[in-house]
Every structure is written in structure tokens, then in C-alpha cells.
Amino acid sequence: MQVYEVGGAVRDALLGRPVHDRDWVVTGATPEAMVAAGYLPVGKDFPVFLHPETREEYALARTERKTAPGYHGFVFHTAIDVTLEDDLVRRDLTINAMARGADGRIVDPHGGQRDLASRTLRHVSAAFGEDPVRILRLARFAARFGDFTVAPDTMALMRDMVAAGEVDSLVAERVWQELSRGLMEDHPVRMIEVLRDCGALARLLPELDRLWGVPQRADYHPEVDTGLHVMLVLAQAAKLAAPLTVRWATLCHDLGKGATPPEEWPRHIAHELRSERLARQVHQRLKVPTDCAELALLVAREHTNIHRADGLNAAALLRLIERCDAFRRPERFTEALLACEADARGRWQFEDAPYPSRPRLLAAFAAAEAVVTGPVAEAAVARGARGPAIAEAIHKARAQAIAEALPALAALQAPGEPAA
Asked: So where does Mg(2+) get bound (predicted)?
């Protein structure tokens, strides 16, 4: 029996990156021998075992054979005579198809070290084309390793897979899993670029894909192209170390511009409501988690109003805060403002510009939230108020608090055009 460390742990060690998870392949063993050695079987489709002490995964070397369309259509085979090389050839990318023996020797039959040196994402074999999930995985690795490029023959293979309809067989849960992981990498724009280049974006997120080539007003958007703008916004969200909810919201905030009739370009009147409608469509199709979906809808609907907060009076500021449901969902409101800051900075020449709307709205919200509503409600009741009249009294008290804070808020303003 031989044990080898495989996959990402070997890759990351060679790159000098931290190794968080380790996977192992065992050759020359049977399931019975693994159990006898104290390993706990957990695999469903093929024998995988947990180490009795470290709880790391140890899998018997295996081969696989495509038997049906889609990424579920595989039959796996394990046997005592399956070699390490047999196992490695079924892996997706050369940089993930290396192993390290107990003696420290690197087993690299497919040139993984060469491709690490040249910063290349390259498929191991034609078997890559049998599993459409690998397109998503490669795009995610492009987001992790931002200076890596996709080998031309690998890109050609992915385009062939898209044309053959393989991507259409992906289930929503797996698509979201890979997209969400890629969005949280250091270079999420690279994931979108790769998916768009191979044609997969048009199949998975056509609402986003159609933004490229759609012009915007050059006075607000020097970059002009809507697709480019959204990528700049996503890059800003990553720069701000934003959570997944915010990064997803940046992708969805301008979807409505792709539905503007060409004769109305470059203006996009009422694109906010169209963006909200299209985002709902995406969320339903991909089964997007509630927290991501809710923030994306809020940002799509209100981002233009948030950008213009420096021109709003106390009453308008409060109405905006209330529409954002900030008193019940303050964390979501804070995330919406972060997404809008990324949007405002996601434009050429505005990357490092101040964004006064965010601190202004946070300060206005703090002033309104500081109002102790109990005494206000009691006073209203004493005057004979009931139901909506009590709520209106609280509303007026909060507006008054914001108005009193406006002189201090004015210092937070800075010159600059609002983004749309």
C-alpha cells in the first residue's frame, strides 16, 4: 500500500501558498484493508475514507468512464491494480494532477510544474470535456490565480463543450456553488472573463452577458461599456474586501441596462426597476440564497437614489432609509451602501474618488435610530393618535433628528457627479 498527497495541497505548496486542506490517494489497497487499518468509510460513489486521527480524506486510486450526458453520467472503478498515474490522468488541470510521495518526490506526469512556472491553466486530457463542472472550476481557479492564462487548446475545448450543450446540463445548485466561490477569490473578474470567453456566461447568466456592447452616458461613465463597468464595480468590491452578498449585488445592479431598447441608448431611464425584475429571474433560476438575493434586489432598485444622497434633504433621506428597511435590517443597509460605493468607484477616473453618500447616509441613519420611539409613541397616544398616526409621529421625530444633524452631515459632502 502506497499513500500520496495529491491535488491542491501539492500545487499550493509549490506556489508557496498556505495549504489548508490535504487530500490523499492510496494505491495497492482494498476497502477491507483500509477499514482494518482503522479508516472510516464515507464515500458513496467510490471508496473514500477518513484517517482515524487527522480525519483527512483518503481515496483509493480510481478511474472513471463517461456513460451519460451531464456531470452525473460517470462510472467509477477502483481496484488494487489501479495506479497513481491512472488516477491522476482523470483530473481536471495539470496543476491539480500532481502528487507527492512519502519520500517527498513529486509525481508529475502531465507537466503541472511546467504550467505553474508559465502561469497556465491547461486541461490534463480529453476527459476534461466530459464534465461541464470543470469549466466552472477552471474559471474559479482563474479568479484565484489572477495572473494565470487559459491554454488556447483548453479554451477551444471549453467552447466546444458549450456548443455541444454540456453546460446546459448543470444544475442550479452546482452553478451557484462554483460562482459564489469564485466571486470570493481575489480576482473575481477573471472568472467572469473566462466564462464569457468560452461562451458559458451566455448560457448561465445571459442577463449579465448581454451588458457588453451596451453604451452608457460618457459624462457619468468614461468607460462607456456597461459590461466593462460592471467588471470594474466587481473589482472594486473585491478591493473593499466585500462579503459575497455585496459582490453578488454588484453583478446584478445594472442588469436592466441590457434590456434598454437601442434607440434609447446611452440613457437608461428606469433601468433600476428592470434590473430588479431581471435579478429576480436570475435568483429563481439559480436558486440564489436569500441573503444574496435580497441585497441584490435592494441595490438594483435603490442604487441611483443612494448615489444622490448628498442632494437630499432630511425628509428625503429618511424616506430612502425607510425604503431600505434599515431600522429592521441595519446590516443589510450597511452592505447596500458598500455595494453602492463599489458602483460609484467602478468607473474610469473614479477608482479612488471619495463617496460621500455612504458616510452621509450612515450618519443620517444613526441620527434617526437614536430617537427613543417609546416616549414619542406615548405622547402621540396621549394626543389621541391611533395606528398610522403613531407611526407618523415617530417618522416626524426621526426626520427632525436628521434635520438637526444636517449641518454636521454637510461636512461629509464632496464634489462629484452621481453615478447611475
From this structure: 21, 23
